[in-house]
Amino acid sequence: IHYCMNRSIEYNDYPPRAGPHRPIWPVYGEYTYCPPQRWIHTMEHGSAVFLHHPCADPEQVALLRDVAASCIHRRIFTPYRGMPEDRPFAVVTYGCRLSMSFVDVPAIKNYIRRFAINPNFATETGVYRNGQYTKGLISRANIVSDEQDSELCPEVIIIVRIC
Which InterPro entries does the record cross-reference, listed alphabetically (predicted)? Predict the structure, then answer.
């Protein structure tokens, strides 16, 4: 359900996993702040939203940022004040949510592989292009496997040749 700016949107679930949202979705990337009314639309397209409380441990925030950047192109990374202090981190996909007290890298990767870009949950997974909303955009998301995210959280193998 798309609501234009002349209509307010409220959620009963925090952070929200679905619901009404704005028709223009954000460019994939990191934001100083991206409102849920925007990032919910990206979740319809199969994206993952990485949230952290603004007062969370900066080292854990950096780790969450690194995991996000290594797992999926279709992502939003933003602070979110609605995170409880005892679980200041979350990864949200359409209809699902992983909340954490610390950044659990294996759990995040398993969650992304299971729920991101999953047509059983997201309704428009074939829409992988960026949106147009850029307010608060710090940096655009890099491509991880390819533009369509055909491989989620790929394992990096480094081959060293000694001659």
Answer: DUF3105 (IPR021454)
